[in-house]
Specification:
Blueprint (H helix, E strand, L loop, with lengths): L1 H16 L1 H24 L8 H12 L3 H19 L1 H21 L4 H12 L6 H8 L4 H20 L1 H4 L7 H13 L2 H21 L6 H24 L5 H22 L8 E6 L4 E6 L17 H9 L1
Antiparallel strand pairs: 1-2
Helix pairs in contact: 2-3, 2-4, 2-6, 3-4, 4-5, 4-6, 5-8, 5-10, 6-8, 7-11, 7-13, 8-10, 8-11, 11-12, 12-13
Amino acid sequence: MTQLYLIREGIQSIVAKFDVYLAPLGKFLLAFITLLLVRGNMGFNAKLSSMTIVLVLALICSFMPTNFIIVCTALFIVANVYKMSMEAALVIGMLFLLVALLYFRFSPKEAIIVMLTPIAFVLHIPYIIPILVGLLCGPSGAIGVACGVIGYYACHYLVLSEAEFSAPENQEMSGKFKIVVDNVLYNKTMLAVAVSFVLIVLLVYAIRRASVDYSWTIAIIVGAIMQLVVLLVAKIVLDADYSILGVAIGSVLAGFLGKLAEFFFFNVDYARTELVQFEDDEYYYYVKAVPKVLVTEPDSTVKQINSQSRRKRRSE
């Protein structure tokens, strides 16, 4: 176990030391993966979705604020959708604008959550997101998760509706608008998942902030169980389209990753908990202090014995 703590301290030290290089690299990878997924699933415009443009946009994003990646990705999606249907591009653009107003008003610092949520859906591991966000972020992280869910389902159902846009009976503008509204704005699955994820984020956050021993572990277990229950109820009530088996597997994986996050970000020794009481002129203070687990690599002293010292001992 001590070796694991030393590895953790080494990783944290490396990240802190090379943060100036790792931050742009991380933004480049985030932007590149996101744009690459859009290109692979919604590459309706072949010229715009060329690998050269994707690389250039990702490189530009690496030197810009993280929120710029969201704006760049949204414009990239709208431009590709426009090639398929002007009506769809108009509706999806308005939806993205409303989501952006909601996001920038209440959760402007959670850009990475907005980007990672659709990526997790594409990788078929979306159910790890609410538990990890509840553990590592504040309540505003729930807004970022909701925005990511809406963005993913909007794009997903536009891709599924591509054949409908080209059908002869849907060539009129009103028909195309109806397809977009029915598949995107009135989507029960999107609503069920978004609301469920928001509730789980807030629940996990509230429990892990509680002043009880092993609060993170309790939050992970309760969050995983409640995620399964809430999504099961939502599926029954709203007839949502997702697999309960997938939710169960994802919740177990979320529990594992949650414990890993706890090891790196909140590893404390509850056995050495101290309760401190003190006062000033106006208040009495009752403080619960839980020390972190800190392990330093032991110093090793190497004593060299050369031939000269051996000859000296022999002469004595």
